């Protein structure tokens, strides 16, 4: 697959990146280089290779998955303009 100047301009537009007209050919070439690297990676046989999270084997730290209230209710409600009975108080908007 080859990226032309028009496609590079479209990608830049979708990414909301302002690219000058004279820089578009260089950007298209960079995209083509990246795609070339991806094609090389697709040629590598990875059959039987286990996925890894790091280059050095490490056990991930695990914690018990429990639902808590965060133990910060008073701290959070201290920022509220109006709090009652442990909740944010807001004006009534529906009659």
Automatic annotation (TrEMBL):
Chain segments annotated as transmembrane: none
Coiled-coil segments on the chain, per record: none
Entry's Gene Ontology BP terms: glutaminyl-tRNAGln biosynthesis via transamidation; regulation of translational fidelity; translation
SUPFAM superfamilies: Glu-tRNAGln amidotransferase C subunit (SSF141000)
Keywords for the protein's UniProt record, in alphabetical order: ATP-binding, Ligase, Nucleotide-binding, Protein biosynthesis, Transferase
Cited HAMAP family: GatC
PANTHER family assigned to the protein according to its UniProt record, in alphabetical order: GLUTAMYL-TRNA(GLN) AMIDOTRANSFERASE SUBUNIT C, MITOCHONDRIAL
Role description: Allows the formation of correctly charged Asn-tRNA(Asn) or Gln-tRNA(Gln) through the transamidation of misacylated Asp-tRNA(Asn) or Glu-tRNA(Gln) in organisms which lack either or both of asparaginyl-tRNA or glutaminyl-tRNA synthetases. The reaction takes place in the presence of glutamine and ATP through an activated phospho-Asp-tRNA(Asn) or phospho-Glu-tRNA(Gln).
Name of the protein: Aspartyl/glutamyl-tRNA(Asn/Gln) amidotransferase subunit C
Originating gene: gatC
């Amino acid at each position: 697959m080859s990226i032309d100047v028009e496609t590079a301009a479209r990608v830049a537009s979708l990414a909301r990146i302002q690219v000058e007209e004279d820089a578009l050919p260089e950007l298209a070439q960079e995209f083509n280089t990246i795609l070339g690297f991806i094609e090389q990676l697709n040629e590598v046989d990875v059959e039987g290779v286990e996925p890894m999270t790091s280059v050095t084997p490490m056990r991930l730290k695990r914690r018990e998955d429990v639902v808590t209230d965060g133990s910060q209710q008073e701290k959070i409600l201290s920022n509220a303009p109006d709090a009652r009975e442990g909740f944010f108080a807001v004006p009534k908007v529906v009659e």
